[in-house]
Amino acid sequence: MTKTAWITGSSSGIGRALAKRLVENGYKVAVSARNAESLAALAAEHPGRIAAFPLDVTDGEAVRKVANAVVAAMGPIDLAVFAAGSYTRDYAVDFSAERTRQMFDLNVLGTAHCLEAVMPGMIARKGGHIAVVASVTAYVGLPGAASYGATKAALNNLCEALHPELASHGVTLSVINPGFVATPLTAKNDFPMPFLVSSEEAAEIIAKALAGGKFEIIFPWKMAIAIRLLHALPHRLRFALTRKMLRS
């Protein structure tokens, strides 16, 4: 029986590449994002396999309606991947609480709206898989990513807290912590991005790990090792290294 996946943040980047990969793996895929035109183009490339459901995940009521529409049109959601998010660099000299609020509204509360919409159905069916896209910045506070990293740390904590209870109901939960992936967001960066991978490479890694039911999917492996080593250092040594990342 063909499985149904729902992916948010799928107008570009990881979400879009993953939608294509899951179609290759036999899924029917519902794609959501704010860019309706991009979604329509993606659906047109895969008629009968990808369906577009435009959505702003910061609108909780809209999320609920779209989740219901996906189920009505395509059947119960077997795999939900919540990849909607944004990234804006921030620094102490021009720190903005409003900018931080906007990132939390999208990255954290937007994800919470989606979780709220799909968890009851999966719990009732005692089956399903949810994946939340976070980032390796969740491990360490990095200059220029104060607000962004805080949102991703929140998502990791949220997933760790929900995992045991969801598992007891037969629902699998994964958190995806990518390093640098070539997307429209990272294209704005004007600094070296070590171990950069393409969206297609990221999608292949994610799809394979999801099929294995892993909780944390962190890649590429070189970045995973580097960020974990940085996290393990005493603060004095860690700050000595992160100070080198400051922009002049």
From TrEMBL:
Keywords: Oxidoreductase. SMART domains: PKS_KR (SM00822). GO terms for cellular component: membrane. GO terms for molecular function: oxidoreductase activity. It comes from Rhizobium glycinendophyticum. This is SDR family NAD(P)-dependent oxidoreductase. Belongs to the short-chain dehydrogenases/reductases (SDR) family. PANTHER family: DEHYDROGENASE/REDUCTASE SDR FAMILY MEMBER 7B, DEHYDROGENASE_REDUCTASE SDR FAMILY MEMBER 7B. Residues 3-184 form the Ketoreductase domain. Pfam families: adh_short.
